[in-house]
Amino acid sequence: MPKKKHNYKGELEQFPSTKVYLNVNYLEKGNYELHIVLKNKLIKKTTFKK
Fold first, then answer.
1. How many Å apart are CA 36 and CA 23, to the nearest integer?
2. β-sheet bridge partners, residue 34
3. Within the chain, where are the H helices?
4. Considering the entire predicted model, what is its pTM?
């Protein structure tokens, strides 16, 4: 018997306009580089390790 696929849906209220959330729970372990871009220009580059 094939497994039944489940579709989950959720709605969130609007986040505050001054915060950006990045959930890294499902990323593989390793080193990452985050680029923040505004109007095609790099404004912040940071690295982190999971």
1. 15
2. 46
3. none
4. 0.55
What is the rounded (10 degree) CA torsion for 30, 23, 34, 40? 150
Q: How far apart are CA 30 and CA 48, in angstroms?
A: 9
Is 47:33 a contact under the CB 8 Å cutoff?
A: yes
Residue 21's pLDDT band (cuts 50, 70, 90): confident
Contact 16, 34 (CB under 8 A): no
Angle at 34 between CA 32 and CA 36, to 5 degrees: 175
Percent of the chain at pLDDT > 70 equals 94
